[in-house]
Amino acid sequence: MTARVVISVDVDGPWGLACRPVAGGWNARLTSRSEAAYGLGRGLDRLLEVLAAHAVRATFFVVGAVAATMPERIRELAAAGHEIAHHGYSHRATHTVGAVAQRDEIERGIGALGECLGVAPAGYRSPAWELTPVTLDLLAEYGFAYDSSLMADDRPYLLDTGLVEVPVHWSLDDVPYLAFHAEAPARPGGLAAAREIWLAAHADAVAEQRPVVYTVHPEHTGRAPHHRLLSDLLERVAQGGTPTSTAASLAAAYAARCGRATAYSKTSEPPTARAEAPAIPVT
Question: pTM above the 0.70 mark?
Answer without folding.
Answer: yes
